[in-house]
Amino acid sequence: MIEVKDLVKKYGDHTAVDHLSFTVERGQILGFLGPNGAGKTTTMNMITGYISATEGTVVINGHDVFDEPEEAKRCIGYLPELPPVYPDMTVREYLSFVADIKQVDKKRKQYMIKDAMKKARIEDVAERLIKHLSKGYKQRVGLAQAIIGYPEVIILDEPTVGLDPMQIIEIRDLIKELAKEHTVILSSHILSEVSAVCDTVLIINKGKMVLQDTPDKLSSHLGNKDGLHLTVKGSRAAVDAAIAGVPGVTEREYKEPKEAGTVNVTVYNDGSGDIREGVFYALSGAKCPILDMQSSTMSLEDIFLQVTQEDNAPKKKAKKKLVKEEKQDAGNL
């Protein structure tokens, strides 16, 4: 549906986008992330044909944006960070104007306007001047104009800016609904929003792609493994001996216990499977009751911060002290 290949945008000596390539399949929601100045908006402006590229190609539904601009743009609905609304029009007048610009069939025009207002939850302000609307409502009017014409691709740049928590939930639900009939590219600084709605996440930094995968697989690219936080009643020696014999366990990290007579440990696995059941039976057999067990994975925020560092210098965070696996017989403990 969307194919971006070796896309480059230069402004003089500054390279805003540097040989960026990715694809988005039909019906997918792509989360497009990056720090300020990473080239996100520039990339989206090139995908929509709003600005030209220095090098590279963008193909939308089989149409090259730069060689076949009219055909490609018919396939795109775009909501930029600042909604392109006309303040002296009513909501209905503005959407009618957008429908005419997009050359919507006159027989379907009124139905499409009504449907877009319903989806964006702006039916109650249809006859009000846009300049009298709140920022949140203006944002939703901008979303409605992107839907007009039922384009195959919808590109949303910070679609929930200025919305209250309830409106954000409504827009998230709408984006999920849109993905049933459209391909969606979503740019947002609200990482929880991206995690909640996106099928794939693409992170860029300094104009280059640094990571792309599904949200639940991103951490695997960084060499991080899922962990299991445990609070166990018993001695550290007994707990360590029991956990060491569980298949798949590679590392153990101990922290100061908050409660006397307990052990606070995080167990890491080799990625071959779920170790919870094995850990449970091992500790049960050692008569070390588990008081608390919680799975631990890297959040999207952790991943984002790690891959968009300004330099490759070591992190200021203290490195985890991992307890090396000891090869001991149970009788030696």
Please tell me about this protein's structure.
- This protein is of the alpha/beta class and 333 residues long.
- It has two domains: 2-218, 3-Layer(aba) Sandwich (Rossmann fold); 220-324, Alpha-Beta Plaits (2-Layer Sandwich).
- It contains ten helices and 14 strands.
- The protein has helices at 40-47, 69-73, 91-101, 106-120, 135-147, 165-178, 191-197, 236-244, 276-285, 300-307, and strands at residues 2-11, 14-24, 29-33, 55-60, 63-64, 76-79, 153-157, 183-187, 200-205, 208-213, 227-233, 249-255, 262-269, 290-296.
- The strands form three sheets. Strands 6-7-8-3-9-10 form a six-stranded mixed sheet, sandwiched between helices. It has a four-stranded antiparallel sheet with strand order 2-1-4-5. Strands 12-13-11-14 form a four-stranded antiparallel sheet, covered by helices on one side.
- Helix 3 (91-101) crosses helix 4 (106-120) and helix 4 (106-120) packs antiparallel against helix 5.
- It is elongated.
- The protein starts with a strand and ends in a 26-residue tail after the last helix.
- The model is unreliable at 311-333 (pLDDT under 50).
Q: Under the CATH scheme, which architecture of the largest domain would be assigned?
A: 3-Layer(aba) Sandwich
Range of strand content: 25-35%
| Shape call | elongated
Largest sheet: 6 strands, mixed
**What oligomeric assembly is this protein in?**
single chain
Report, as a whole number of angstroms, the end-to-end distance: 61 Å
CATH class of the largest domain: Alpha Beta
Strands of the biggest beta sheet: in what spatial order? Answer: 6-7-8-3-9-10
